[in-house]
What does this fold into?
Amino acid sequence: MVLPDKDYLDIALDMADAPDTHFGFETVPMADKQARVDGVFASVARRYDLMNDLMSGGLHRAWKDALVTAVNPPRSERRFALLDLAGGTGDVALRVVEAGGGGTRAIVCDINAEMLAVGRERMAARGRDGVIEFLEGNAEALPFPDKSFDALTIAFGIRNVPRIERALSEAYRVLKTGGRFLCLEFSSVDVPGLDALYEMYSFNVIPAVGQAVTGDRAAYQYLVESIRKFPKPKVFAQMIEATGFRRVSFTPMTGGVVALHSGWRL
Ligand SMILES: C[S@@+](CC[C@H](N)C(=O)[O-])C[C@H]1O[C@@H](n2cnc3c(N)ncnc32)[C@H](O)[C@@H]1O
It folds into this structure.
């Protein structure tokens, strides 16, 4: 496949050993990005779930439902281990555990202690703290043995990771043979008319709502900019395939606002 130059440029910036990467529209030293991302999520953690509903008009629930359907946890007592990577407050893990039977367990692994703290409180309030564990860890160097999980989800997390290829390799490593990688991420809108509307909404409405609800406009400016910098879905699918995953596919949703990427460790 012939890729436009811009895509090559973005891939180059995402290479694990590149000296620089992007933090939104800013080019920053690779070593600086994680701390900047951590600052964003520490700042918004307490209002994170509310903001998801406000920004997406509740649509993130439908996108996550599609993700959970793809995970397809067994309804029986059969053991099923999910890793919800960059899982934040545990929204996806909770949905999977609620969809699955008594043998479904989830670990939420995230680099941000504030997001995890909100998640732990939330699960305790729902009586789910026995089946969902929260663990601090970096997607680039996961604290789990090889072949530990039946499925790995990462929702709206991968574009925040400085070295995407390392995170993909780690996802592959910790999945069991036959395990499925599922990544929900913002994508590129390709519906004429909707693209202009989405652009206007992203750059004008989202930072303003972020300011009003969290007091942190910059965090939501980063959010919309980081979406634009994330590789196009076909390019990201190639990155997943290059990691070793098989039967790689993606499904655009809501006119391409998000895409659900899938790959299997076979
Ligand atoms: C937009 S939130 C998504 C949270 C959750 N998956 C959801 O859909 O509600 C992105 C999450 O990625 C986490 N994150 C960023 N860099 C990470 C890394 N290197 N390793 C693990 N988690 C990371 C952030 O701390 C944050 O909780």
Summary: Residues 34, 37, 41, 86-88, 91-92, 110-112, 115, 138-140, 155-157, 160-161 surround S-adenosylmethionine (CB under 6 Å).
